Amino acid sequence: MPSTPPSPNRWNPLETLSPGGWIILIIAVISTGAVLVWPIEKTEGLQLWTFARNHSEVYENILDRRNREAEQTGQPKVTVFTIDGPALNRRTLAGFWSGTPVADLIEIERSAISQYVSGPIENVGFTDLTDTIVAEGLDQKINPPSFSPWTSRGRIFGLPHDVHPVLLCYRADLVEQAGIDVNQIETWDDFAEVLRPLIADLDGDGKPDRYLLNSWYTAQGELEALLLQAGGGTFDSDGDLLVASEANAKVLAQFVAWTLGPDRIAIDAPDFSASGNQLKIEGKVVAQIMPDWLAGIWKSDMPQLGGKLKLMPLPAWEPGGRRTSVRGGTMIGIPKATEDFDAAWAVAKDLYLSPKLAKEMFQTSNIISPVMELWDEPYYAEPDPFFSDQPSGSLFIEQAPHVPFRSSNPFHVAAMNRISEAATTLYGEASEGAIVPLDQIDADALLPRAQELLKVAEKRVLKEMSRNVFLRKELGITPDGERIGEAVE
Amino acid sequence: MSSRSRYTWWAPYFFIAPFVLLFLVFTVYPLIYSVVMAVKQYNGLQVSVFVGLENFFNLAEDLEFRKALRNTFVFAAGSLFIQLPCSLGLAMLLNRPDIRARGFFRMIFFAPVLVGLAFVAVMFGLIFEKNTGLLNVLLHDLTAAIPLLPTWDKEFPWLQEYVMPALILAAFWMYIGFNMVYFLAALQNVSKDLIEAAMVDGANAWHRFLNVTIPAIWPVATFVFLLSFIGSMQLFELPFLLLGPGGGPDKQGLTVVMYLFDQGFNVGRFGYAGAIGWVLAMILFCFAMLQKFLARRGEA
Q1: Distance from CA of A384 to the nearest CA of B (A)
Q2: Mutation site for B-interface testing, chosen from A109, A424, A453, A474 by largest number of B Cβ within 10 Å
Q3: CB-CB: which of B4, B132, B268 is closest to A15?
Q4: Which residue does chain B place closest to A112, by CA atoms?
Q5: What's the pLDDT score for residue A487?
Q6: pLDDT value, residue A3
Q7: pLDDT (tens digit per residue) in A373-429
Q8: Considering only CB atoms, which chain B residues are within 8 Å of A89?
Q9: pLDDT digits (tens, 9 = 90+) for B253-267
Q10: Rounded CA gap, B10 and A481, in Å?
């Protein structure tokens, strides 16, 4: 019997797609399957994120031993990840905002903390450590001012890594060559007067190119340190705005006057830049406002300056005034999402309270520990060849208890930005001769305009605060940007 | 209907499905969701409050946003009215048959666009430095060598007080050759017959440029104009890397997209960032309409 020919309408699966179509489909199916079954690499134990390579190098040394012991005791191991600062913040904030995974321990830099506490206190992504710290007596063990940058509305969200007191670093070789005695310097006015002979035209073009202080009206870090030294800043410990305070106006006027006119003493030699470092090496900068961490960076970046520098307390704003300030800082926080708070807290304490860490941080980065009982360690008192054999550690430690309070109000960064804008406006107007003729510029002449600009800046901060529907009531601001009562830091 | 077409009617849909799915998830949904976000205030992504049009009202009063908008428009003006005419001039120059090694010069002028923006930002950061920057040192040494000229100040504050000229200069270096390529392509399509006819009629070079070349390249010119404008309005990487996230002193280099990024991803004000995004989108839409209108008018 002859076989029946296949019906032309019968479905043949192979003809459904062209050969190319089948290849694409097969690849799609295989790759989808592969992605689905591919094992997600899991990191064992706890993760620690830091933004500073010098921190992670020291931590890894310390944690290696701890991890070996952990293997025997069954405790979780700790893995340190170094992530670039902005990337770390973005990833951490994204984790807090959206619930994606973050590390168990995270180091946060001072300039970023406002972002983490910008909402209602119960929504902060870090664990509130206040009660734990007090219960364990760490508030007595650690330098008290070091907690302030990490405290919002009375609650502490991190363990402080440092103190970062500020001294004045000066070119001892130039000063001694000119026969100047720096013991005559007590205030910033003395500083300008006593060291003025060192301003010099080194290249003979008729314009000075060596100045007394590395500072510029755009240098927010130096400006903040000086505002804090004078008792100003952004917010006080009660959460009240200080933007338009008299202390701020005085500092702002002086800060700008240093960069202009006959009283100019400042040069713009930015930190962390090759050109700025070149100016320092060439001797065009006589003095620098120097926190302990910056001393460490100078040692590694400009070894040529070794033996030519000395440290002294900052000149005060008034006779008998504060001879130090504070700049920068780091904390370690524990996200609420961590699965093992106790283990993370134990690691945080093991690291930050460790005598070994204190020693290594000082020896590698010149950073002094906030743990007060370690301040008598001999390595802090050793002569430092970079600073002409002065005991740099002891000099920083002498000032550590006197570092000023720093606010971590959610609007701290906004307020500091408004103050910087006031500085820029003041400089612009002064340099155009719109306040007084250029040859009459000094701090007294700029003071009234500085006061006006800071009042405008304060109003803008209040307005910005009033726009935050989550915080305006808590911060005591009406929707129109007026104060309605006592605010709480 | 053949058996093949009968059984494979779904194949095109099947193959287009991944794109449609991704487009819906990553373009259409975010677009719609950004409208929802723009009428809310956020603290993180999990806590939000409906605020109606408050974000837009706040934006209208926001001095920083105004500054960012002004900076962006100034940069766009610099790109459109300095860079594009120069690109056209360069294209005309390199379109002349009597120029030797035209291909080489075209490549040289186009080359900067091949360099990454991050690299350009780092490079111009060094060029514009005070005291030690290449530009200030060069100008200082040159002017010092010429007796009648006042000596250039080595402390000239490019990145402190002359931020916008610095940005326009950096973008000029980078994009002049890129836009030149568009104009070059358009110029090569200008009818030689028309130009010769105009010459026979006694038209001088300027009249030929105005009445023959410009109408011929008009559609391309309006397209390049729109492209440059959109690019300028979206300016982000160059000032971000050259001046920092805040846009430098007094926020002279802050652009709308930088402000959007800052408000959204640094401050966490997603609603406000959404409102900024929509204002930017509306501005771009208006200019796209203007370009369409101008292009049609040119064709007519």
Answers
A1: 31
A2: A424
A3: B4
A4: B266
A5: 44
A6: 53
A7: 999 999 999 999 999 999 999 999 999 999 999 988 889 999 999 999 999 999 999
A8: 266
A9: 999 999 999 999 888
A10: 61
Alpha-carbon span A211 to A259, nearest angstrom: 10
Q: Which of A326, A260, A251, A339 is nearest to A294 (CA)?
A: A326
Given a cut of 70, is residue A237 above it in pLDDT?
yes
Q: Which two tokens stand for residue B98?
A: 């009597």
Question: Is the pLDDT at A486 greater than 80, yes or no?
Answer: no
Residue B170 has a pLDDT of: 95
Of B172, B214, B179, B171, nearest in space to B106 by CA: B179
By the 8 A CB rule, do A338 and A332 touch? no
What is the residue-averaged pLDDT of chain B? 90
Write the CATH number for B219. 1.10.3720.10
**Taking a C-beta distance cutoff of 8 angstroms, is the pair B90, B180 a contact?**
yes
ipTM score: 0.80
Q: How far apart are CA A157 and CA A297, in angstroms?
A: 28
Confirm if A256 and A357 have CB atoms less than 8 A apart.
no
User: Could you report the per-residue pLDDT of B41-62, keeping only the tens digit for each?
Assistant: 988 787 899 999 999 999 999 9
Q: What are the tens digits of pLDDT across the range A269-312? A: 999 888 899 999 999 999 999 999 999 999 999 999 999 999 99
Q: Domain range for residue A193? A: 166-326+404-466
CB contact under 8 A, A207 and B153: yes
Token pair for B165:
């000229």
How far does B221 lie from chain A, in Å, by closest CA? 39
| Cβ-based contacts of A206 with chain B (< 8 Å) | 151
**Letter string b/e over residues A298-322, b meaning 16 or more CB atoms within 10 A of that residue's CB:** bbebbeebeebbbbbbbbbbeeeeb
Please list the ranges in chain B whose pLDDT falls under 70.
1-7, 298-300
**Rounded distance between C-alpha atoms, residue B133 and residue A349, angstroms:** 46
Domain count, chain A: 2
B43 in any annotated domain: no
Distance CA B137, CA B160 (A): 17
How many Å apart are CA B225 and CA A203, to the nearest integer?
Answer: 47
Two tokens, residue A432: 């155009």
Q: Are residues A397 and A418 in the same domain?
A: no
Domain total of chain B: 2
Distance in angstroms (rounded) separating the CA atoms of residues A202 and B243: 30
Instruction: Quick: pLDDT tens for B11-40.
Output: 888 889 989 999 999 999 999 999 999 999
Q: Which token pair is B11?
A: 């194949």
Return the residue of A nearest to B270 by Cα. A97
Tell me, yes or no, whether B136 lies in a domain.
yes
Contact assessment for residue A261 and residue A439, using Cβ atoms and an 8 Å cutoff: yes
